[in-house]
Write a structure and sequence with these properties.
Layout (H helix, E strand, L loop, with lengths): L2 H5 L5 H32 L4 H4 L13 H10 L17 H33 L5 H24 L7 H6 L8 H19 L2 H25 L1
Helix pairs in contact: 2-5, 2-6, 5-6, 5-9, 6-9
């Protein structure tokens, strides 16, 4: 969801500002927490690269790329600075590669599930006429959705995503698929984004991860 889709609605201006602020805060902290966990796990696996570069931090400035964030706000897709790692420094290459590549995905999935539940509570018990409560409703919703989106994107076995890094633990550097992805992964990713195929895939998965889970949690209170 980019800036245009937020302001293209017929909501009052102050509502649009609340939505935009909630969206920005949610995406900044979803990315920051994810990248901090990846840096932490990488350090635990024996690679101090992220720690030495200052990325073992919950400071968003260490993880958010300003130009990437601008693209995300305006066009709906962007990029982060990315946690700097050196897999050759892992105590156990395969174990390190597996856990570092999965750590961000697992973190985002857990946060998504937790805040789906929180969103149900907010939807049922928060008075949306109170501006701060309306803001929190949007914040919890966006935080859940964005974490799920990060899960869906990063499970793809496309360079330079986590799905590709996970495969590195099992396939050789010269494996034909891995070589192909290193050469053309970014191009494939751009094509998937611009063709909206990635967005379609994300929406299909969100139907299960957010909508169905939201309805399941809602039954607890009904």
């Amino acid at each position: 969801m980019g800036l245009y889709s937020i302001f293209a609605s017929n909501q009052p201006f102050y509502i649009m500002l609340v939505v935009l602020l909630a969206w920005l805060i949610a995406i900044i902290f979803a990315i920051t927490i994810r990248e901090f966990v990846r840096a932490y796990v990488s350090n635990k696996m024996g690679d101090p690269t992220a720690k030495l570069s200052g990325q073992l931090s919950l400071n968003p400035a260490k993880h958010i790329d300003p130009l990437g964030m601008l693209f995300l706000v305006v066009f709906g897709f962007g990029w982060t600075k990315g946690v700097q790692t050196n897999p050759n420094l892992y105590k156990n290459f395969r174990k390190g590669q597996i856990w570092v590549s999965l750590s961000g995905i697992i973190t985002n999935l857990c946060l998504g599930i937790i805040f789906t539940f929180v969103s149900v509570v907010a939807e049922l018990y928060f008075n949306s006429d109170v501006i701060i409560l309306l803001f929190l409703q949007y914040l919890f919703y966006f935080f859940a959705i964005i974490n799920y989106v990060l899960v869906v994107i990063n499970i793809l076995p496309i360079y330079p995503l986590d799905g590709y890094a996970f495969l590195q633990a099992f396939l050789s550097y010269n494996n034909k698929f891995m070589v192909f992805m290193r050469r053309y992964g970014l191009i494939i990713l751009i094509v998937l984004i611009l063709s909206q195929l990635l967005g379609l895939f994300i929406n299909l998965v969100l139907q299960v991860l957010y909508t169905d889970l939201f309805n399941l949690f809602a039954k607890i209170f009904i």
